[in-house]
UniProtKB/TrEMBL annotation:
Protein name: AraC family transcriptional regulator
Source organism superkingdom: Bacteria
InterPro entries referenced in this protein's UniProt entry, alphabetically: AraC-bd, Homeodomain-like_sf, HTH-like, HTH_AraC, RmlC-like_jellyroll, Tscrpt_reg_AraC-type_HTH
Keyword match Repeat: no
Keywords: DNA-binding, Transcription, Transcription regulation
PROSITE patterns per record: HTH_ARAC_FAMILY_2
Taxonomic placement: Bacteria, Bacillati, Bacillota, Bacilli, Bacillales
Species the sequence originates in: Paenibacillus mucilaginosus 3016
Length: 284
């Protein structure tokens, strides 16, 4: 399974189109024979008991379980006759489309596998149910503003999922320490921070700290710090006419030439090129 950070990164690159939303209360004899799935879909179990068989493996279908089905997956679904299933479902298409260094990247679903597949346990079920209720309600309405609202609620649903997985993933003081150093970098990126200092703050060896930080955050500690500094520099380059040396110093670099090399490595442009292209007012 992807880490929460990796999952968020993948989902953030997708454009999702809803095909169908629904709420289903099963009869006691409900049973779907083994079939090959045609569409991407998400099922959130909210009541009852049952068994979903995916590729020959049996999974419990019960409250707190979320199923993500993908085309070609062979699935059989049945309910417990004494506790009939109740669930929300969402059927959708998607494509991958995002901008990277001012270049648009496009991949269709055949080229970009959906990052969720199979059964997941969720803990924030009430919030997910509420969002599914909203999607179900909005699906019954029409209009451009309603369509925009559906997109927002769907994104919020995926965000809730990522946050849920992240909360489950975070276990013990080690991960809390990783997040502590992440927050510290956000507040102190102007200072001359070192990997050794951050690892010591987390109470870990440098190598262990680096591995855990990359696993949970998605960047190495130094890459994360670099992106914080470059993002702040972008703001200053666009919104001010400060000299390059001043901007470099304000984001933690004493050498403006080194700062320029780092900036170009991250953005693909020199600071001056970036400012010329994006600044809100003309340069002198």
């Amino acid at each position: 399974m992807l880490t929460p950070g990796e999952l968020a990164a993948r989902l953030n690159k997708l454009v999702v189109s809803i095909l169908l939303v629904g709420h289903q209360k099963c009869e006691s004899h409900w049973h779907q024979k083994s079939r090959s799935i045609k569409y991407h879909s998400v099922w959130l179990i909210i009541k009852g008991r049952g068994t979903f068989t995916i590729g020959g493996t049996h999974y419990p279908a019960e409250p707190g379980k979320l199923f993500c089905f993908t085309p070609g997956m062979v699935v059989e679904r049945t309910t417990d006759p004494e506790q009939p299933l109740e669930y929300y479902f969402l059927r959708f298409h998607y494509t991958e489309c995002y901008e990277e260094k001012e270049q648009w990247i496009y991949r269709n679903a055949a080229e970009s596998k959906f990052p969720l597949e199979g059964m997941y346990t969720v803990t924030n079920t009430p919030q997910l149910i509420y969002q599914m209720e909203q999607l179900d309600l909005l699906w019954k309405r029409r209009g451009h503003m309603t369509a925009m609202r559906r997109k927002i609620v769907l994104q919020d649903f995926f965000l809730t999922l990522v946050a849920d997985f992240r909360a489950q993933k975070i276990a013990g003081d080690t991960t809390a320490a990783i997040e502590l150093t992440q927050d510290y970098m956000i507040g102190h990126y102007r200072e001359p921070l070192t990997l050794e200092t951050l690892a010591q703050m987390a109470g870990l060896s440098v190598s262990h700290y680096s591995r855990l930080f990359k696993k949970y955050i998605g960047y190495s500690p130094i890459d994360y710090l670099t992106h914080l500094r470059v993002d702040r520099a972008k703001e200053l380059l666009v919104l001010s006419d400060y000299r390059l040396k001043s901007i470099a110093g304000s984001v933690g670099y004493t050498d403006e030439f080194y700062f320029s090399r780092i900036f170009k490595k991250v953005t693909g442009e020199s600071p001056r090129e970036y400012a010329k292209k994006h600044r809100f007012f003309p340069t002198s």
